[in-house]
Amino acid sequence: MESLTSGSGVLGNALIGLREGLEAGLVVSILVAFLVRTGRRSELPKVWLGVGIAVAVSVGVTLALALAQQQLTFEAQEAFGGGLSIIAVGFVTWMIFWMRRAARSISAELRGRLEGALAMGPAAVVVMATLAVGREGLETALFFFTAAQAAGETTQPLIGFLVGIAASIVLAYLIYRGAISLNLGRFFTVTGVLLIFVAAGILAYGVHDLQEAGILPGLTTLAFDVSTAVPPDSWHGTLLKGIFNFSPQTTVVEAIVWVAYVAVVLPLFLRPQRTRAAAPTT
């Protein structure tokens, strides 16, 4: 039971690391494959330099957020964390829909941008690779930071996140080598649904932070209290907290925000996509 309880904080963050890491890994794979197949391996170090810069910036942002929060008063910390949670949910929601829409065309788009950067010079290649991976990295850093704050732990979120990242790197490499064939559309749909519920929990947690900071009212007005049936320190309470940020004592405002987010975002995400007519080939 103890291992399950401690492992619950790992699962939600492992999902974040797997999903966001695979998105970044696929971007890198597309860039590398394009250079290899067009006989321009000499440009690979520039791409890897850009990837390294993007990773360093993402790690730096995470550390800066953690250090900045430690310098604040309790009320300011709650306001800071709550605001970041809402921003992170906004970014992740946008990325979920963007990846669902652009999954089929992202490869051609990235190849075109890299071709243009190659024509401009070495610095443009580094900048292009940095921006392509950096967008994923910054989003991941912000979402991980807020998820770790919501989990209320020190090492478990980081362990889960690193496990997810490691799995995403392996998957991206196997896809690049042609060792496995992954239905990316289905993968991003399933993980997108799961992330919607994770994001809903983080959004509710952010609202709770704003209530504790005195910015939003209703901190003592509970929608329900199931702490007797689901004790916060029980294995199932910790499991729900670690994956979906479920709180046995949920305020009315938190409940409204959670339900409203899922009720709006989930149907929009699952609705059938409109298929565009294929462009004529020459």
From TrEMBL:
Annotated transmembrane regions: 12-35, 47-67, 79-97, 117-134, 154-175, 187-207, 252-270
Keyword Transmembrane helix attributed: yes
Compartmental location: Membrane
Entry keyword set: Membrane, Transmembrane, Transmembrane helix
Membrane topology: Multi-pass membrane protein
Family matches, as InterPro entries: FTR1/Fip1/EfeU (IPR004923)
Pfam families, per the entry: FTR1 (PF03239)
Family of the protein in this entry: Belongs to the oxidase-dependent Fe transporter (OFeT) (TC 9.A.10.1) family.
UniProt-recorded name of the protein: FTR1 family protein
